[in-house]
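Observation: inputs received (chain + phosphoric acid mono(formamide)ester).
Thought: call the complex predictor directly.
Action: predict_structure
Action Input:
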Amino acid sequence: MLKNKDLLGLRGCTAEEITEILDGAVQMKKFLNGRDRKSDILAGKSLVTLFYENSTRTRCSFELAGKLLGASEVNISAAASSVQKGETLMDTGETLDAMKVDFIVIRHPMAGAPKFLAEHVKASVINGGDGMHEHPTQALLDMFTMRERFGKLSGLKVAILGDLKHSRVALSNAFGLNKFGAEVRVYAPKTMIPKDFEKLGVKIAKSREEAVDGANAVMGLRIQLERQKGGLFPSLSEYSGFYGVNDAILKYAAKDAVVLHPGPVNRGVELSPQVIDGDKSLILEQVTNGVAVRMSLLKLLAQFRENM
Ligand code: CP
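Observation:
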């Protein structure tokens, strides 16, 4: 049983809660791959996706997850909403509450915006990515993908390469994987490693080879050009040459290693095209798993709400 009405980050989740979501996603994936994809688990419930930043995967997969389980679903993009007329986040939240919305999935450029919203609405708030803070459902689907492939998370060596400074995916994965005893190594230009990052229990590698050595999973992170003021690395080609994932660097990983990326990928920058389309890549499997994980989360939050 989840302990909160909201999912704001993995820092605040227990290993038991995460396991419950991942276990539920196993069943949801069978349902997703099946022929009869109709369910009324969320019949009568409503889900709003409230996105102040662009998204393809997170938004679509929440919308599909809700629809597949029988919920009504509405999307609000900030560009086409009353936000443009100056409406505050709190007023938007209270407006959605007044419409008896059950779930609000929010993506916002400000870290902490989902928490602020959650404190002011009755609906369950799910963080779809907030600033440079967390992206919990991305990490959940990453963890599901690794657990599905290797049967466990404990003891896995996970190398995360790239823009750690701007990455909410890296932070949520560090919080989540640590709770299961996985070994997380990171490697990035020094300008892209947040202060005190090692205090999260991750190992900051001195080289790409050291990070990837014996790794079971190698995760590339998107260069978040939109969040950078520039000057963090000399050029994209140098970035890909020194920090990217290619076939040569994967020779250091475990034989059965897999490659993950949250997407969208800057082809040829974080990952070489050969790696993206190669047999180690689970990038599209991650997308499928994202729907299953979000279905499981919505079902569990709905159960929590029944007992509120
Ligand atoms: N991984 C991820 O959050 O992708 P979107 O920006 O497409 O949602």
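Thought: report the result.
Final Answer: The longest strand covers residues 124-130. The longest helix spans residues 283-306.
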